[in-house]
Amino acid sequence: MILALDNVETGYGGAPVLFGVTLSVAAGACVSLMGRNGMGKTTTVRAIMGQLPLTAGRITRFGNPAAQTSFKIARAGIGLVPEGRQVFANLSVAENLQTFFRPAGKTATTQWDFDKVLALFPRLANRLAHAGNHLSGGEQQMLAIGRALMTNPKLLILDEATEGLAPIIREQIWACLARLKAEGQSILIIDKNISAIAKLADHHYILDKGNVVWDGNSTALLASPDLKSRYLGV
Known about the structure:
Elements: E1 3-12, E2 15-25, E3 30-34, H1 41-48, E4 56-61, H2 70-76, E5 78-81, H3 93-99, H4 114-120, H5 122-125, H6 137-149, E6 155-159, H7 167-182, E7 186-190, H8 194-200, E8 203-208, E9 211-216, H9 218-222, H10 226-232
Parallel strand pairs: 3-7, 3-8, 5-6, 6-7
Antiparallel strand pairs: 1-2, 1-4, 8-9
Helix pairs in contact: 3-6
C-alpha cells in the first residue's frame, strides 16, 4: 500500500471534522473519495499532505507511518492538484511548470518532464508565455495537473478534478486521467461525476459528516443508486 489512513481524526481549532477515517490506495490503483460539500474530503487531503495535525489514528505514506512536514511529504512523492487550482498568477505557464520539476527516481517507470507534459496537454504549448491568471479555468486545471506531474509523483491527488469546467474540458481531463492510470500512475481523486469516476477508479469511498459511510468497487457503486440520493446529491 502506498497510502493508508487508519482511523484518522483531525479538525480545525479544536473542532473535529474527521471521525475515524480509514482508506487506502495501492500502487498503480485509482481510488475515489466522494461526498457532498463540507463532508470532510478536502480535510482528508490536508491531513494526508501534513497540513493538519492528527488528533487520533495514523497515516502511512510509502510504508512510513511517521508524522512528516508537508515539504517532506511532497518530496517523498505525493503530487497535489488542489481545489481551486492555485496556479501562480504572476508566473507564466512555462515558469509554473519548470519551477516544479523534480527528476524521477531511477526505478520509476514513467519520467515526466516539460516536453512530456506539453504532449499530454497541447493547449498549454500555445500558452507558454501567458501568465497563470490569463488562462481559462480549463487551462488552469491542465496547468495544475501538469505542475503536479512535473514533480514525478508516486501518488497523484486531485481535489475536485473537474469542478466548474466546461463539458468538453471535463472530457479532456477524464481522458488524460485515464491515460495516466493506464501508464501505472497511482491516483486519489475527488470529484462529483459518478459515471466518469466509476469508469476511472478501481475503488470508491464515500464520506458523510467526517465518516466513511460506504466503500466498494465500481460495480457496487453503480448498482446502488440510493447512494447518490443519500450521500452525493445536492
